[in-house]
Specification:
The complex is a heterodimer. By secondary structure, chain A is mainly beta. The longest helix of chain A is centred in the N-terminal third of the chain and has 8 residues, at 2-9. Classes of the chains: A mainly beta, B mainly alpha. Chain A binds chain B through residues 199-201, 204, 224-225, 227-228, 254-257, 282-283, 285, 297-301, 303, 306, 309-312, 347, 349, 351, 353, and chain B through 1-5, 83-84, 86-88, 90-91, 94-96, 98-99, 102, 105-106, 122, 130, 133-134, 137, 140-141, 144-145.
Chain lengths: 552, 168
């Protein structure tokens, strides 16, 4: 793998036309031709055996429902994706019986992982929730920010395989859930936004009793009846030190809504990064950036705060991507059970239209309680399919008499057929038959074969690693372009746009590189990378089936 | 760390205890509620109902403000801001007001409890019905998407019809 990266280094391109080297493809056993997708859970064989805890089995407090997130990132710069798994605590009665430790797994490059937590100086035993990845000091090594029930923690990547906890870490001392690094003010460094969920104390968690009645059984209270915890924003001073600037930036959480997911993205294509926050049981926020790092909340009039019925939903996760291949970034928002997930199609000028029903999203997503997800071209046919991680918050759903739902729920894969979604989960391989109560998920090419795999954090059970063994329907291209705002590819006469996205899913971080499924093409006619300052790097006649690195 | 509302909860508990002691004292010397208590409660009811009316007046003033704001922006040709004002009208205020509404609902105050149960109002909404909210948001979106003056006027009239229908 290292030799491959060295080879790749020789292919660095910047401004001039060129083509990269094809990347060796390891081809696993592929799916039946009649099966559209084929995923295999290889977690155990790969060595991912950590159980991610979240309170007691009966979950009397809302904190015990949130589960944890996961990050896919290359911490050691060896070219493959490593994995950071956030862990919570295990409770029995009103006692803490195990403080689950976060785990860093190094990808060995052969389909297996090794636990390098201790060597890396990690292994936090706080009650963890989520994770964000960003290069806070511009040294080229991705750093980590972990949200906790309690103080959050920032880890600086030392560049030698180890991390150091940053003293006086920015964050929220409470139940923070999502976080995202992004260059809000266009000054070239990574700022930080942290989402707060609800006010709670450990005492309250330990002594909580189910007080809400749901389908004739007692379940946990919340989020209504609990106090919201305000979001916070921190500006990077350029040296990796953070100063709170929430109000100054216009990101004051005026409603103190229950924020569960956040993504930074350029919704209006004006080359700055806006912010979308999915709120549980409240309108979602869309903060439009004026280019200087000052934001205005436009969710209420942009159409992205409510569903088609003008109702606030219970947002749990958000995934941006160009679903309809029109070059504009759309939003997939995962919602609570007995309510559809929502597909907000970008109509331009910061206007979104809920097209969940006509696109076929409503029916498959109405029943389950959805969290993390991905908009990814799993079969490389040139359009973005949808993955959704599901799991109920009430374990009492499994108590007799039947409720029509369950705590553990099947995850979903929805195939994109010309902009219309088809639920193909039941014909998507044994990996989709693994049924747990899933929460955070991240997507990336974990095994380096050119297609996109998934890793999913589950409540009180081990992680799921879905290796994508789908028969490819086309070529692929993976573009590594740190600092890019948007990558556009023209191949076979079709245009594909992948905007830069940071954060998203549910409290998780996916591979930040730009992945393209291209359909049946032999070459890429044009590859254009747009940078943060609006300038572009253009390449022509680029080979497919390769990882190509483009530097400014 | 105590939750912020713990103090308020304690105050409420003290108040309820005082009232219960008074009621118990009243029952100690007769089989009917003392007239003074009935009168006090009657006066209290006046205040409660008056507060509800004040709440409605307040929300109507806020809606008037957003309507006039929208009108002014329409006249100035700033359609984006006009659409934003219409959306704020539809949502009975911005997210800060939404936060206040959330607090009221969580505290058990529903201006239209019956209407909410029937699906006619969103939780905590005072004037704007669910249907009117939907129509006003549609008008806001139509105004944003409009390319011609005709389309803008149509969207505006759509909003005016909704706003007029909510006037008493």
């Amino acid at each position: 793998m290292r030799s491959f990266i060295l080879l790749l280094g020789l292919l660095l391109v910047g401004g001039c036309g060129g083509e990269g080297e094809s990347r060796a493809k390891t081809v696993p056993v592929k799916a039946r031709p009649d099966a559209p997708f084929h995923f295999v859970d290889t977690a155990e064989a790969a060595g991912l055996r950590t159980i991610t805890w979240c309170g007691r089995p009966e979950k009397p407090h809302l904190l015990e429902s949130g589960g944890t997130g996961v990050a896919l990132f290359d911490y050691d710069g060896d070219g493959d994706l490593d994995l950071y798994l956030v862990n919570g605590w295990r409770l029995e009665g009103s006692e803490v019986v195990e403080r689950g430790r976060d785990v860093l797994y190094r990808n060995r490059g052969d389909g297996t992982f090794e636990d390098v937590t201790r060597e890396a100086g990690l292994g936090l035993d706080a009650w963890g929730c989520g994770v964000a990845v960003g290069d806070i000091d511009g040294d080229g090594h991705p750093d980590l920010f972990v949200t906790n029930f309690g103080p959050d923690l920032l880890y600086r990547n030392n560049g030698d395989g180890t991390f150091s906890a940053v003293p006086d870490s920015p964050g929220i001392d409470g139940w923070s859930a999502p976080a995202v690094f992004f260059d809000a003010d266009g000054d070239g460094d990574q700022d930080l936004f942290v989402g707060g969920y609800v006010e709670a104390t450990l005492e309250e968690v330990l002594h909580a009793k189910p007080t809400l009645s749901w389908k004739d059984r007692d379940v946990m209270l919340g989020p209504f009846g609990l106090e919201g915890l305000a979001n916070r924003y921190f500006e990077n001073d350029g040296r990796g030190r953070f100063v709170e600037a929430t109000d100054k930036a216009g990101l004051t959480d005026v409603g103190e809504y229950f924020s569960f997911a956040v993504a930074a993205l350029d919704v209006d294509d004006d080359n700055d990064l806006d912010l979308y926050v999915a709120n549980d049981s409240n309108p979602n926020y869309l903060y439009q950036n004026d280019g200087s790092g000052r934001f205005q909340e436009v969710g209420l009039w942009s159409g992205a705060a409510f569903d088609v019925n003008s109702a606030a939903q219970a947002g749990m996760g958000v995934v941006p991507g160009d679903f309809d291949n029109d070059g504009k970034i759309d939003l997939f928002v995962a919602n609570f059970a007995q309510d559809s997930s929502t597909l907000y199609v970008n109509a331009g000028d910061c206007l979104f239209v809920d097209e969940s029903q006509p696109r076929g999203l409503r029916d498959p997503t109405y029943g389950p309680l959805s969290w993390g997800g991905a908009l990814a071209d799993f079969d490389l046919d040139g359009d973005l399919d949808i993955f959704v991680a599901n799991g109920h918050i009430y374990p009492q759903a499994d108590d007799p008499p039947p409720t029509g739902t369950s705590f553990a729920q099947p995850n979903l894969v929805l195939a994109n057929h010309d902009g219309h979604l088809q639920d193909v989960s039941r014909n998507a391989g044994p990996g989709l038959e693994v049924v747990r109560s899933s929460r955070g998920s991240a997507v990336g090419d974990i095994d380096g074969d050119g297609d996109l795999d998934l890793v999913i954090a589950n409540v009180d059970t081990p992680t799921t690693l879905l290796r994508n063994d789908t028969q490819p329907r086309g070529a692929w291209l993976l573009v590594s372009a740190a600092g890019a705002h948007r990558v556009e590819v023209t191949a076979g006469g079709r245009r594909f746009v992948r905007p830069y996205v940071s954060g998203g899913s549910y409290v998780s971080a996916s591979d930040p590189r730009f992945h393209f499924g291209l359909g049946e093409v032999e070459r890429v006619e044009r590859l254009a990378v747009r940078w943060a300052d609006g300038s572009e790097t253009e390449l022509t006649d680029v080979a497919v089936d390769q990882l190509i690195e483009v530097n400014r | 760390m105590l939750p912020k509302n713990k103090g308020a909860v304690m105050k409420n508990k003290c108040l309820i205890m005082s009232v219960l002691i008074c009621v118990a004292a009243g029952f100690a010397w007769s089989q009917e509620t003392p007239k003074s208590m009935v009168e006090t409660y009657d006066a209290l009811a006046d205040s409660i109902l008056a507060l509800k009316r004040v709440e409605e007046h307040f929300v109507r003033s806020m809606l008037d403000g957003h309507r006039h704001g929208a009108e002014a922006y329409m006249k100035a040709g700033d359609y984006r801001r006009a659409a934003a004002e219409i959306a704020l009208f539809a949502s009975e205020g911005d997210n800060a007001i939404g936060g206040v509404r959330k607090r009221l609902v969580e505290g058990g105050h529903h201006h239209h409890a019956d209407g909410e149960a029937k699906g006619l109002y969103d939780p905590g909404f005072v004037v704007v019905t669910r249907k009117a909210k939907q129509q006003a948001l549609a008008a806001s979106a139509a105004l944003l998407a409009a390319k011609t003056d005709d389309e803008r006027n149509k969207a505006w009239q759509q909003f005016v019809a909704v706003a007029d229908s909510l006037e008493k």
